Amino acid sequence: GTVSLNDKYLNQFIEKDEVIAVQDFVKAAHRKIHEKSGAGAEYLGWLDWATQLDKDEVSRIEETAQKLRREAEVLIVIGIGGSYLGAKAVQDLLCPSFGLNKMEVIYAGQNLSGRYMEELLSFIEGKEVALNVISKSGTTTEPAIAFRVLRAWMYEKYGEQAAERIIVTTDKTEGALRKAADATGYTSFEIPPDIGGRYSVLTAVGLLPLAVAGVDIRALVDGAAQAEKDLASEDLFENAAYLYAAYRQILNARGYSIEVLASFEPAMSGINEWWKQLFGESEGKQGKGIFPASVIYSTDLHSLGQYLQNGRRTLFETMISFKEEQYQSRIPFDQENGDGLNYLADKTLHEVNQQAMNATALAHVEGGVPVVTIEVERVDAFHTGYLIYFFLKACAMSAYLSGVNPFDQPGVELYKQNMFELLGKPGYEKKI
Ligand code: PA5
């Protein structure tokens, strides 16, 4: 299929009976998701979003993106967590590396680094710029600060015309950003109230920046819609997302409490980050959760690879494999053969990379690391949308299997509270 699970390296770690034993729990969790009866049920809007999505809204996003592409060279997306990781992930995977994209989409508001901001301001000097500020709550401090700085820069450069280059993506009625949009006439998009940040990449949160970056957002949504149909069964042997979730929890129960998402494609680094947020923020609560980590191979075979092979045996690995050979870069024949590589002459890098993956999986399994492989047919917008939905659904299932609410993030609040106290925000009396 489009995205499928290959468990040939798992067989020596998990018996089929163990999987059958969790089927009833999977069915119960499936009902929580589909009947909206579990904890956090008010955040299940993502479940059928791709098939319900209003095509007029997609057109409005595309038109806005076209306008921005005509008028600007750089789009700065301001957001943090679920308000930027999805767009960045898909952009990293689908857009060319090495600055080959004509329209630059860059990010701000995901850190408080003065250096980052100063270098960003130097970079945009003399360029035509647009802003897309994204915050569901409209009150998150990091993006609010970045927006204040960059908005001042925009008004300095464009005067009142700046308003036409600022796009707001936020809640329909709530928050400071909605007020700003209403007061200034900024073009705005809505984040549905029933879709949380880390589940929002297929809403305007991800779609607008991605359309500006040149991604085929309709294909992305279509891929998710296909996954929605394919991953609707309550039977975990007919639902790859549920099977993946079940494997994770079976392994976790056995003390494999760290999952390493491994990819042999460097363009996957953004998806790694998005995936870590999705699973980390959804499952890491009540003293539970699988710690999500990630690697990019071959790079990390010469780094964390040593730990994977011989370190503490508390981790399992999920490898992502892209099956189709889309790029034909070949290793040339060399008369001298000084490097001894003629045995590889005429092979594509893809072929060699695939063997690097098989070799790594075999080595890690031998070293005691359970390995599960997610096979993706090819890299394009459709398959990326499919893969995103696969993970969203697997994450909801996995969190319910472990008995936590997949959709809240109570633990993100304490640092904010402390920061406000330390910075003297009005209304926050000092505890520290
Ligand atoms: O997944 C989540 O809900 C969070 O990571 C939020 O996306 C993040 O905290 C940013 O929130 P907001 O969009 O309200 O600024």
Automatic annotation (TrEMBL):
- Write out the GO MF terms: glucose-6-phosphate isomerase activity
- PROSITE patterns assigned: P_GLUCOSE_ISOMERASE_3
Spell out the Gene3D superfamilies in the cross-references. Answer: Glucose-6-phosphate isomerase like protein, domain 1
The alphabetical list of record keywords is: Cytoplasm, Gluconeogenesis, Glycolysis, Isomerase
- Pathway(s) this gene product operates in, as recorded in its UniProt entry: Carbohydrate biosynthesis; gluconeogenesis; Carbohydrate degradation; glycolysis; D-glyceraldehyde 3-phosphate and glycerone phosphate from D-glucose: step 2/4
Q: Where in the cell is it found?
A: Cytoplasm
Q: Which reaction does it catalyse?
A: alpha-D-glucose 6-phosphate = beta-D-fructose 6-phosphate
Q: What is its EC number?
A: 5.3.1.9
Please list the residues that make up the active site: 281 (proton donor), 416
Record-stated family: Belongs to the GPI family.
What is this protein's function?
Answer: Catalyzes the reversible isomerization of glucose-6-phosphate to fructose-6-phosphate.
Kindly provide the name given to this protein in its UniProt entry: Glucose-6-phosphate isomerase
Q: Which organism is it from?
A: Planococcus shenhongbingii
